[in-house]
Design a protein that fits this description.
heterodimer; A: 132 residues; alpha+beta; Glutaredoxin; 4-stranded mixed β-sheet; B: 294 residues; mainly alpha; Ribonuclease iii, N-terminal Endonuclease Domain, Chain A; Double Stranded RNA Binding Domain; 2 domains; 3-stranded antiparallel β-sheet; 14 helices; elongated
Chain lengths: 132, 294
């Protein structure tokens, strides 16, 4: 069955800074709907007072990776889109995929080795050996 | 603004701090996490059973020791937490019985020792603790040590299965066990899991049970006999009909490998068997079981 790999989202923002306006609008309008649509993600909203670091959305996944995304000067819809993108990701590292294909069954009829299509010793018909 | 050397010192302190439980870091709500867990696994749990399933014996002991140390009166602040050992036992028994039934239904030729080996592998510590780690059970368990040792994780996961058994009944728990344990067998070979010392003897026994004559090994192909790395293909023939063929470095190794290939074919555990059936069980089965039990 499908198990969503996102464990929890922590929304850290400041209630007075200017670049956290989108985050504050998201908390007022869209956070509850997001939480209802994704009941298996725990959403923590923690406002930190005073001029602190930039507002950030921290995502923790089941395999332990923690991903932080800046939400400074983003609108509420953009934050919703970002949150859904993080919710549908898995916690694997985002690195360049070397090949766009992968198979678990590289050969169907058996991989060729130098002895395929060579008759076995027992069935070779020589002048002395005879079939029974 | 903080000075450069102060920032460097604080960063070093942060990196050298000992690992802490997730429950001790900021932003943690136990009830919400447990609800999210039940939604993530798409199962309805009764939350008290689930909360007792996460409580371990070592946690209860450590809490009581701490209270005695602080000199609190026992009756005033009594711990009303129950253990998860009974739930773990029931979960283990159910999981083993269910998996044994699954394998006997899917591979009817496999002998009892093979079924037991597969079930032991699937309920072993490493596998169960690996599955539990990736389902975030290591954050939710209440345990004395951190990080939780694998036997604690295994016990907690089995207790979760026991709790599900009590909340939703055996059918849903069976589907849960099937969905989380059987994919761990993908890509694994039978004889990686089941250690067989004498495959030739086992093969002879199996063939006598099916009333086929004893196998005769013959060399089918050979390459590089006089080199350092020879390859021999030994085929096993019964009544001059081929049973299986296996490669090996020496003649003895090739014969053993051929016996293993023959056993895999007989038990139906080859690489090209049908994949496991994960479809939903039809409701007619429940009616059948009810009728058969009556």
């Amino acid at each position: 069955r499908y198990v969503r790999q996102l464990q929890r989202l922590q929304l850290l923002f400041s209630p007075t800074a200017a670049d956290a306006r989108g985050a504050r609008q998201f908390v007022e309008e869209a956070a509850q709907d997001f939480a209802r649509q994704h009941p298996d993600v725990v959403l923590y909203v923690s406002p930190r007072a005073g001029p602190g670091p930039a507002p950030v959305l921290r995502a923790e996944y089941l395999n332990g990776t923690v991903r932080e995304e800046l939400i400074a000067s983003k609108t509420s819809e953009e934050i919703v889109q970002l949150a859904t993108k993080l919710a549908n990701q898995s916690g694997l590292d985002i690195i360049r995929i070397r090949k766009p294909f992968h198979t678990d069954n590289p050969s169907i009829q058996g991989q060729w080795h130098p002895l395929t299509n060579k008759p076995s010793i027992l069935t070779i018909q020589g002048p002395r050996l005879q079939h029974q | 603004e903080k000075k450069r050397w102060l920032r460097a010192y604080l960063e070093l302190q942060r990196l050298q701090a000992p690992p802490q439980r997730r429950s001790e870091k900021p932003n943690w709500d136990y009830h919400a996490e447990i609800q999210a867990f039940s939604h993530r696994v798409q199962e309805n749990f009764s939350l008290d059973l689930l909360k007792t399933a996460f409580v371990n014996r070592c946690y209860i002991e450590s809490e009581e020791a701490r209270r005695r140390q602080l000199g609190l009166d026992k009756d005033a602040v009594a711990l009303q937490l129950q253990d998860n050992s009974e739930l773990a036992e029931r979960g283990l028994r159910f999981a083993r019985a269910y998996l044994a039934r699954c394998f006997e239904g899917a591979y009817p030729e496999l002998p009892a020792k093979g079924v037991e080996a597969l079930v032991n592998f699937l309920t072993s510590q490493e596998l169960v603790s690996y599955v539990a780690q990736n389902l975030s059970i290591q954050d939710l368990t209440l345990c004395r040590d951190f990080p939780a040792p694998p036997d604690v994780l295994q016990k907690t996961f089995l207790a979760v299965i026991g709790a599900l058994l009590d909340s939703s009944g055996p059918e849903r728990t069976g589907i849960f066990v099937r969905d989380f344990f059987i994919p761990q067998l993908i890509g694994k070979d039978l004889f990686e899991i089941w250690e067989v010392v004498n495959p030739m003897g086992l093969l002879v026994e199996e063939l006598t049970k099916r009333k086929i004559s004893a196998p005769e090994p013959r060399i089918t192909r050979q390459l590089g006999v006089s080199t350092v790395l020879p390859v021999y293909f030994v085929g096993l023939y019964c009544d001059k009909k081929i049973l299986a063929e296996g490669p090996g470095e020496t003649l003895l190794a090739a014969e053993e490998e051929a016996a293993r290939v023959a056993l895999r074919k007989l038990y139906g555990y080859t690489e090209n068997r049908r994949p496991w059936d994960y479809s939903k069980p039809k409701e007619g089965l429940a009616a059948e079981k009810a009728i058969s039990s009556n």
